[in-house]
Amino acid sequence: MTRGNQRDRDRERAQARTTGKGKQKDDGLTPEQRRERDAKALQEKAAKKAGQAASGSGDAGDKSNKK
Length: 67
Hints:
With about 70 residues, the chain is mostly helical. Helices cover about 60% and strands about 0% of the residues. The model has no long low-confidence stretch (mean pLDDT about 80).
């Protein structure tokens, strides 16, 4: 076996990276509160994007390739 213990070490490293990380679903909010928070964040993001589009960014964000 030419790899030796590399496979085992890689598995241990991968497990160490994932341990203790990840999304924490327990943020103290009810599902309804979470929906409201997320909806508000999306509205703010859309308003910011609309404000940038109206402020004169023009077609700089247009990624269509017109020839």
